[in-house]
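Table 4 source record.
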Amino acid sequence: MATSDERISNFMFEVGSLKNIPRTGWLKAGIKFPETIAEHSMRTALLGWVIAAMEGADTSKVVKMCLMHDLAESRIGDFDKVARRYLEKHDAELKAQLDIAKNLPDGMDDEASELYRELFEMRTKEANITRDADRLEMFIQAHEYENAGHSKKILKPWKESGSKNLKTKSAKRICKAISGSNFSNWWSFLYNKQS
């Protein structure tokens, strides 16, 4: 049986594996070097933090849920919408997530399992914000790929899926702002300000 430190080490290496797993839906959209699950999770966590603060929710809980929301994909892979027609993703994710949590230190394992169950059941404001952050991140990524010259027609389903089911007013506001902007706005604004 592994010691607590060995379990933490295993957990960190498993988390690191997400840096090497591409988001498969983007591959089907023709994106040659798509974002990884880790990249998606990082921006999802930051979006969750912002939305939770705007909505007056528990920011710490939302950030933790966002960081964990795709962790199970280290074991089961990334099921895109086509694969989900044939596979039961939720049951596999829940089982993998609960097994992964066992590598966390005592107490954290229970917290991680409870947070994931809460997210899985969508029973709280924080779970809904986490889902909004996940969807909104997908919308933003599709918008960035579109701004970079990829086909609007091909990316349209991702943008629609990422924007149409948002629950919170804050996520809807952010989505609207993103829709009318270009992904280079942040640096061109700073560049022009320096001139």
